[in-house]
Recover the amino acids of this structure.
């Protein structure tokens, strides 16, 4: 009877543990759906400006657009080649207890250098020079104005858009959303949101 009770309690404990894991997973991965009334907007935009510089570099190959300034023969790698043979002896014991010395021919390797031409060259590279940053807490998002010199160009552009609002539980939430959605929203609009256990908030239809 005691053995049956012990097995029964073990099964109950296992079921309880599985139920707890399922519950925990549900709480972590299944978001809470609610609504939020928009109370604010924010945006950021940035344009990276890069400046060119002539750099002295070297390598086994010449990149496109580079100007070769010199070259030389260098060891590129080493290749193993057989330069001869030697004999190694091995004492072999047979089943009848007798011994015999056997000789094996073993190759001797040497490393032979392989040469290739190594180049020195000048090449134009682009480096970060400055940022043209704009931001606001409104709906009037715009890109900053700038002038480029002859040795400058536009690099990466980045942008982010946020809305802030009050949920029906009176909690304040802020989230990043795509511009195509952000531009069509207005102050005091009510949107549907999902709140995840790690704090992430997303919109849903």
């Amino acid at each position: 009877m005691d053995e049956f009770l012990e097995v029964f309690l073990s099964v109950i404990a296992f079921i309880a543990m599985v139920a707890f894991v399922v519950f925990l997973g549900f709480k972590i991965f299944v978001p809470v759906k609610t609504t939020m009334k928009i109370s604010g907007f924010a945006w950021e935009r940035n344009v990276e400006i890069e400046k060119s510089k002539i750099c002295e570099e070297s390598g086994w190959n010449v990149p496109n657009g580079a100007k070769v300034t010199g070259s030389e023969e260098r060891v590129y790698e080493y290749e193993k080649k057989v330069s001869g043979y030697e004999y190694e002896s091995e004492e072999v014991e047979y089943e009848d207890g007798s011994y015999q010395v056997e000789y094996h021919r073993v190759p001797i390797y040497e490393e032979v250098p392989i040469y290739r031409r190594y180049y020195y060259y000048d090449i134009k590279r682009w480096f970060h020079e400055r940022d043209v940053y704009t931001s606001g807490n409104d709906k009037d998002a715009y890109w900053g104005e700038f002038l480029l010199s002859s040795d400058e160009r536009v690099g990466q552009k980045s942008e982010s858009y946020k809305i802030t609002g009050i949920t029906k539980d009176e909690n304040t939430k802020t989230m990043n959303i795509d511009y195509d959605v952000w531009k069509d929203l207005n102050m005091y609009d009510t949107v549907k949101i999902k709140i995840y256990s790690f704090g992430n908030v997303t919109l849903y239809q």
User: Anything to note?
Assistant: The helical segments are 2-29, 179-182. The two ends are 57 Å apart (CA to CA).
